[in-house]
Amino acid sequence: MRLEVHAVATGSRARAATLVTSHDRVETPVFMPVGTRATVRTQTLAQLEQLGAPILLANTYHLLVRPGLEVFERFGDLRRWMGWTHSILTDSGGFQAFSLPCTISEAGAELRGLDGRSMLLSPEQSIAAQRAIGSDIMMVLDHCIASTSSRAETCAAMHRTHRWAERSLAAHRAAPAAPDRDAPPAALFAIVQGACFADLRRTSAEFLTSNDGFDGHAIGGLAVGDTRSQREDITELVTELLPADRPRYLMGVGTPLDLLEGVHRGVDLFDCILPTALAQQGIAFTSHGRLDLQRGVYKLADQPLDRACACEACARHSRSYLHHLMKCQEPLGWQLLAQHNLVFYVRLMAAMRAHIRADTFAAFYREQRELLARADPDHPPGPRPRVKRRKPQVPR
Ligand SMILES: [Zn+2]
């Protein structure tokens, strides 16, 4: 894997590059839709291809639990099994060790499988699983903690992350090349930890970059309890310390505004569940700001969701109809809004790439900082209404 940097914006650290993976040439900065369980929720592969998403994120822990690695070994890899022809980045399972019930020891993360029995995910097993999945970009197993953790806890987790990163790299180097695959070996990224302690983040970045074996670097442990300004400060601090010739990935972040701020600070890769997860709550990101389609103000609204968008939700339906689908909890509503949100994210990234290459990013950044922070200006949201509890209805 290699990174070809084409341009760095004046007055910003934003950069446009091409990431050459085993399967694609991915133009960066790029947003990767999250396909945790080998599917981007409610979206077909045809929709994702039309979207122009050249790389998806899949999750090692979830795929290990179900369907299990034997399926990928039988089919060759995840790509062939699910029918995806482009690149895949896999998370190592480190975030699930944080978000699900789990015991951490030096050996690895002890998680629960489907049958309730505990399952040890070690750095070596995570690499073996990611290789069986056929990932283009693998992550080391890291010890992720809340960004509000104490200094002692953060320090211990960071040093464990470093030891696990070295074990992951050794396992990756020791693994034999798959005999039936022509593709070049997958890339391996290290993960910088250190919560919101600037000196620990610096120590982590310096330690991991002192080893030349990692193909790229991720910033982990953000958007887990930190404020937006903490997130931006840590991102800025870390990206400054990462080598310019390797890709930088900000894990699990975030809103369109977070993406803009991340690109401005020199990040190349992003992933987040927000476009699809918020769609299920009726939230749409538009050129007029963020809209909550559950609100009654849209019941009679006959304009499209976003005049600047040509996706199916915007081209064929009114806000009123989308509001109705959301109120009825119709899966079609989730699907349409998720598609729209993904189109919005992908278009935002394409606009950023174009502005970096034209060296107009600084002005675009200033303008978008205001626009992306807005909520519907025609119907400014007031205080949240109190939710009345309904009495349980007796079935007739
Ligand atoms: Zn749309």
Can you tag this structure with a few keywords?
eight-stranded parallel β-sheet, alpha/beta, single chain, 18% strand, 40% helix, 16 strands
Structural account:
Helix content is 40%, strand content 18%. The protein is built from 15 helices and 16 strands. It has helices spanning 45-51, 60-65, 69-75, 78-82, 94-99, 123-133, 151-174, 198-209, 228-241, 256-264, 274-279, 312-316, 319-327, 331-357, 361-371; strands at 2-8, 15-20, 25-28, 30-32, 55-59, 87-91, 102-105, 108-112, 118-121, 137-139, 187-192, 216-219, 248-250, 269-271, 283-286, 289-292. Strand 12 (216-219), helix 9 and strand 13 form a beta-alpha-beta unit. Helix 6 (123-133) packs across helix 7. The model has no long low-confidence stretch (mean pLDDT 94). Zinc ion binds next to helix 12 and helix 14.
In short:
The protein has 396 residues and is of the alpha/beta class.
Tally the helices: 15
Give the biggest sheet: 8 strands, parallel
Q: Give the distance, in angstroms, between the N- and C-terminal Cα atoms.
A: 63 Å
Q: How many β-strands, per DSSP?
A: 16
Q: Note the overall shape.
A: globular
> Could you say which structural class the secondary elements and strand pairing correspond to?
alpha/beta
Associated small molecules: zinc ion
Identify low-pLDDT runs.
none
Helical fraction:
40-55%
Strand order of the largest sheet: 4-14-13-12-11-10-6-5
Chain-averaged pLDDT:
94
- What portion of residues belong to β-strands? 15-25%
